[in-house]
Amino acid sequence: MTEPETLTFGAGPDVPNHNWPLMLYRGVLSGGAGEAIRQLESNGWGGAWTNGVYPFTHYHSNAHEVLAVVAGTARLRFGGEQGEEVRVEAGDVAVLPAGTGHQRVDASADFSVVGAYPTGQHDWDLHRPDQEDAPVSRDRVREVPRPAADPVYGPDGPLLALWPAA
């Protein structure tokens, strides 16, 4: 089992972020989007889509999200405007707790990710920093239940230890 890198962000002026860390697995997937979707779904993460990452800062206040890079490379910023830029490539998987700001800074022409959400969180919202609901979002993100399983390694994966139950 590959242990994830972790990044923790405090609440920022533009996004609420979360007390739980963002988890970044390096080189854990092989194959294309279909294989990534099957693996994520087998671990209880569904509602999958395949595309890129928006070029503007945004977050989801009612859902955790996994971004599995299935092609190309990119620089993504996590944690909002004052967060951290991270280079990702095919095979990498980022697991974002609800409220974590994210955006694409730049990417190769073939960059593609599969996004998915835990069971019960497929009807996700999308917030941008220019919306005036940040206080509501800060409260809401902490109420989103912890997933039942890690999207990469299932119920025995690191997520359950790194994201403690409330």
From TrEMBL:
It comes from the Bacteria. Residues 122-145 have a biased composition (Basic and acidic residues). Signal peptide: none annotated. Residues 57-103 form the Cupin type-2 domain. Residues 120-157 are annotated as: Disordered. This is Cupin type-2 domain-containing protein.
